[in-house]
Amino acid sequence: MSDCIFCKIIAGEIPSRKVFEDDDVFAFHDINPFARVHFMIIPKLHIASLADAGPEHQALLGKILLLAPKLAYEQGLDSGFKTLVNTGRGGGQEVFHIHVHVFGGGPAA
Ligand code: 5GP
Ligand code: ZN
């Protein structure tokens, strides 16, 4: 999606603080963190929201969820963390490329 800011981040057209990347998935720190550690995990495939995902995305979404504790631990959230997926305008979603927020460690500085 040429006008999607998260697709541009994946492509390196918009800089980000990368946490993790493989063939399927990209993770990067939120530009406006609401916790001391706050990053997002996204699929490289453009899926607009959880409401736009289908059975063909089951493995990809499962992979993202299973990655959350691993990356959270690597980022120092060894006693636990929160996850959040905003879906749709009414759900507070601002960027329409599906993303799982992972955050914790107390309030952002
Ligand atoms: P949403 O409200 O859609 O669940 O969350 C979108 C998140 O993306 C927000 O927390 C916002 O701070 C973050 N964000 C928006 N634009 C950028 C950007 O250009 N770079 C980074 N790293 N985060 C962004
Ligand atoms: Zn996208």
Word description of this protein:
By secondary structure, the chain is of the alpha+beta class. The protein has a single domain, classed as HIT-like (HIT family, subunit A), CATH 3.30.428.10. It contains two helices and five strands, in the order αβββαββ. A five-stranded antiparallel β-sheet has the order 1-2-3-5-4, with helices on one face. A hairpin with a 3-residue loop joins β1 and β2. The chain is globular. The chain starts with a helix and ends in a 5-residue tail after the last strand. The mean pLDDT is 97. The site of zinc ion (ZN) has 6 residues, from α1.
Sequence-ordered SSE layout with sheet pairings:
Blueprint: H1 5-11, E1 18-21, E2 25-29, E3 37-43, H2 58-74, E4 82-84, E5 100-104
Antiparallel strand pairs: 1-2, 2-3, 3-5, 4-5
Give a concise summary:
The protein has 109 residues and is of the alpha+beta class.
Helix content: 10-25%
Proportion of residues in β-strands: 15-25%
Give the overall pLDDT as a whole number.
97
What gross morphology would you assign?
A: globular
Radius of gyration: 13 Å
CATH C-level:
Alpha Beta
